[in-house]
Amino acid sequence: LNLFLKNSIFFKFVINSFIFFLICFHAFFNFTTFNKNVNKIELIHMNELIKVFQTQNFNQNFSILTFDGKVQTNLILQGYKNLNMILGINTSLNDEILEKKIIESFRFLKLEVDDFKKFIQNKKHGWRYINSNIGNTFYMKYQANTLTTFKKSMDFSTEEKMFIRKSSPLHSQQLIIPKFEINRLVTKFLTTREINQKKPKIIIINNNDFFSKNVKIDKNLYCHKIINETYEIFYNRALNQCI
Q: Is the pTM of this model over 0.70?
């Protein structure tokens, strides 16, 4: 106590440090609690959606369209095999076919080129660049660090180049698509007019996807059911689910 009283600067430092520590602890605790609650809600919503398929006992050969990777995995485990668009980690299809499926699905949902650009754009999250859409679909194809890039290219923005040069080779899960590859994909989207895939019997929309509000579905062919805040289902009217 005498030390504190004689040295007011030291006293203020200790008090301020203690207050700062409490604020950080409080923020971390709230952040962790929030994430746990979010994950719990997502799990509940997912179970509600899967329960629909379990109770309705749909034909497992029905074509289903969804961009939600967790939903796809659950449906595959339930025995559903005919997914219009499927993540690369769930299939042995080559990249060309996967690109075609994504673009045709976007076209079917009447999404615009800006939606597609946002779907494939390079995104920085925390300590790395990673776009989960690209990672889930093409896995490590566009890995980027000081050791490797796609086709050894450095056709990136100035900020991306600087980040790559500073990235450890151990950052194997960092994904950055070169400019020429983004341009190729966008051109492919713009030149793809015909939709060869069959119209899905069921469409599952995750409202957390950035493009969910831009989706346009023909109400003459499909009826709509809200499962919860996260998921909505569009049934082909031939399934007699329009109640």
A: yes
